[in-house]
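Our preliminary data section would be incomplete without showing what the modeling component actually yields. Below, a chain of 174 amino acids is followed by its predicted structure, encoded as tokens that our downstream tools consume directly.
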Amino acid sequence: MKLHSWNVNGLRAVLKKGFEDYVLTYRPDVLVLQETKATPDQVEIPSSLGDWEVHWNSAEKKGYSGVAVFTRETPLNVTSGIGIDEHDHEGRVLTLEFPDFFLISVYTPNSQDGLRRLDYRQRWDRDFLAYVCRLEEKKPVIFGGDLNVAHTEIDLARPKENRMSAGFSDEERA
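Predicted structure:
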């Protein structure tokens, strides 16, 4: 099974700039997308891509975050969010259950300039990990997504200058 993950930073825009070529060239069986910034009614999937089931979790705020999963296999179950209201309105998690595993598309919140959302980000990290651990008690979990963190210095240009920047703070990298 070929599983691809892609932060599209706006699915409507990327549909006009290479999405079709990418899918036809690499032919993933499953494609997990982050930062879709769209609702299903705003997007038309080109028929040239063939038969896909597309599952969505869109943010309540228009044009913000959102995740989707394109799959050729019908999942047993689809769950939007992690079951915590504080997080679920932003459309950041979509879980598909298959016979042998759970598949998650995740778009982790950014701590933003001045780390003004760091407290929220830390709650998110704790709650998302707990969610994944609960699923893992039942069967293996595969997740693809944008975790909004550069884990080690090699993952980032100019690590010293970015030490306390969003995505590279000590708290996020712990």
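The helical segments are 11-15, 19-26, 85-88, 118-136, 170-173. The mean pLDDT is 91. Preliminary results of this kind motivate Aim 1 of the renewal.
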